[in-house]
Design a protein that fits this description.
By secondary structure, the protein is mainly α. It contains 18 helices and no strands. Helix 2 packs across helix 3, helix 3 runs antiparallel to helix 4 and helix 5 crosses helix 11.
């Protein structure tokens, strides 16, 4: 065996991939639903863009959201694989990143449109929010055409805020993002959305980032009374907890997606018809919030 083959075998052994099959057997039904929910999230967006010869609508009008959508899917899939390989803490950390990507994509998408900028009282009460709005006003005053251009290519906002995006004084907290998105109606169909998204999902996932002892993989093995503390092995309780959390995040993701694309769905019969065909799938995947939102849009 040459060095490269030896390295490949070594990495394969360390990857935990041999745990994938046994992990699936432990929690197959819920894991399948959580995984398929990721696919439903990415599948719905193109369905909502009318595509016949009478009315072409460019994806660029929601590109600030859609560009991040791919990142959300990639992170969710990678997180899923880590969980199957029994690297639970890594999986949960990736889930928090997935949720942050989702929230930021919705935030910048909304902020690229005047109707949202003009109705953003949560940002107006935040020093970072005030800074962002002042920066955008200066951009528009310098180049008046930019404001109209963003309505057609929303991802253009990333070019405008790029020079400041790494500045901590320019970044609203996740709590502020959630409250503002809630005010904008981006979580519509989720009761007590700010609590569900921030106090529930985000705050819980943050415990993994900050390495709370019982959220580490070794801590989980101790709690489950496994004798082999320093070996990666399946912890059924952790796998179940992960699966539930992934499923909840993708349910929230689809709600956000449908609210971001609501005007397209309501404005075009072709989009409404395609969405109606997904109701059975959402029901099978037990996406309760997504199902409520989709049915509201189809009334």
């Amino acid at each position: 065996m040459n060095q490269i083959e030896s390295a490949i075998k070594h990495i394969s052994d360390e990857s935990g991939f041999h745990h994938v099959g046994p992990s699936l057997k432990v929690e197959f039904d819920s894991l399948q639903k959580a995984h398929d929910a990721i696919h439903e999230f990415i599948y719905l967006a193109p369905l909502c863009f009318p595509g016949d010869d009478r009315h072409e609508v460019s994806w660029h009008i929601r590109s600030a959201f859609l560009l991040y959508q791919w990142e959300v899917v990639d992170h969710a899939h990678r997180s899923y694989i880590e969980a199957l390989c029994t690297y639970y803490n890594v999986a949960f950390i990736l889930l928090r990143t997935t949720l942050e990507l989702l929230l930021k994509s919705a935030f910048w998408e909304c902020l690229s449109h005047k109707r949202f900028r003009d109705d953003s009282s949560v940002l107006d009460a935040s020093s970072e929010g005030k800074e962002i709005k002042a920066w955008l006003r200066a951009v528009f005053e310098s180049s008046p055409s930019v404001e109209k251009e963003l309505e057609q290519v929303s991802a253009g906002i990333y070019d405008k805020v790029g020079p400041r995006i790494e500045d901590p004084t320019f970044r609203p907290s996740v709590k502020t993002l959630v409250r503002q998105l809630d005010e904008w109606g981006i979580f519509n169909s989720i009761m007590n959305a700010a609590s569900v998204v921030y106090e529930g999902l985000y705050s819980d996932l943050s415990a993994h980032i900050h390495a709370v002892p019982d959220r580490t993989d070794i801590g989980r093995r101790i709690a489950s009374e496994r004798p082999d503390l320093f070996e990666q092995n399946i912890v059924p309780v952790a796998l179940r907890d992960y699966t539930v959390t992934l499923h909840e995040i993708m349910d929230v993701a689809i709600v956000i997606e449908l609210n971001i694309l609501q005007d397209l769905i309501e404005g075009f019969e072709s989009a409404r018809f395609k969405l109606s065909e997904r109701l059975t799938v959402m029901e099978q995947l037990e996406l309760k919030h997504s199902l409520v939102k989709a049915r509201e849009l189809l009334k």
